[in-house]
Amino acid sequence: MSLAGVVDAVLEAPVVPSFTSVGYRVRSRLDKWKPLDRYDLTGRTIVVTGATSGLGREAAEQFARLGAHVVVVGRDPERTHRTRDEIAGLTGSDALSVACADVGELAQVRALADTILSQQERVDVLVHNAGTLSAKRVTTTAGYESTVASQVLGPFLLTSLLLASLRSSPVGRVLTMSSGGMYAAPLMVDGLQMAVPTYRGSKQYAQAKRAQVTLNEMWARRVPASEVVFHALHPGWADTPGVEAALPRFRKVMRPLLRTAAQGADTLVWLSADDGAPLEASGGFWLDRRRRRIHKLPTTRRSDTGARREALWSWCTEHSGARLD
To answer: Among the four 50, 126, 158, 250, which has the fewest Cβ within 10 Å?
Structure first.
């Protein structure tokens, strides 16, 4: 094992140094990362959900700087158009489109896909970044718990609706922004949507993120990597508006060590831009430009059975209404 590999393993064992800015700085130097500004995304169309703040906003700006046509997706039309204008002003790019939808509302997801397909010749990269973490249980108009709807059902449906367009790209990719919090969550199907009496927002979020990572692997097994590549990743602990709103105590304690939004979005942008390692295999889970295991605990590993995976896929297919070949 190389020196960089040894140091990476030492960082990865305890969570704190790995997920903080310390891990980012050490790995970027030891692995001699290619700077993102050396990539060229001219001619590629990238759809980014949750693009109006935090990691999605940062990634959308970086994609624009690299020459991509960026479809900025957000829930609020005014805020989404404002974000588009801000990114255009900062980057000088006019290759920016707006598409509005709440990805937890399945009817809006279908309309979003129709808008994208009617406006774009093809989609090269689909970035699933939108999501919510609520302290109280909130449901969508269809009755689904909002965290599961926005991070599991909505992305599943949107992927299915844009899959043919992604297949038409020479470098089609679907990238899912997950969270290191999923390491503590078992794979759930029957209990995926937590009920009111036992509801905890952070636990619900972790369960949804676990489902995301599992589905990423399942998509990769069903769609050949020669057609579309699927990857999930987590950003480490980044200082974003979402963290500030949902986890204020955590942010207060950890703020000196939290990653910047740019550091948190780095691997997402790299997975979108690099035509080397990201295209060599599909179904990976990444942190800091390295593929990672999806389990750290025996308890979560035992929950991850083939039968439960198939049950999750069937549940998503049934409840999203996705039509899959």
So the answer is: 250
Cα torsion for 235, 293, 133, 288, to the nearest 10°? 0
Name the nearest CA neighbour of 242 among 129, 85, 146. Answer: 129
Count Cβ atoms within 10 A of the Cβ of residue 165 and give its class: 0-12 exposed, 13-18 middle, 19 or more buried: buried
Q: In what order do the strands lie in the sheet with 284-287?
A: 96-100, 69-74, 45-49, 125-128, 173-177, 229-233, 284-287, 290-291
Q: How far is the C-alpha of 127 from the C-alpha of 175, rounded, in Å?
A: 5
Asked if 24 is an active-site residue, the reply is no
Q: Is 93 helix (H, G, I), strand (E, B) or coil?
A: coil
- Torsion angle, CA of 194/196/197/203, rounded to 10 degrees? 40
The string of pLDDT tens digits covering residues 43-61 is 999 999 999 999 999 999 9
Q: Which is the catalytic residue, given 24, 144, 183, 205?
A: 205
pLDDT, average across residues 307-318: 98
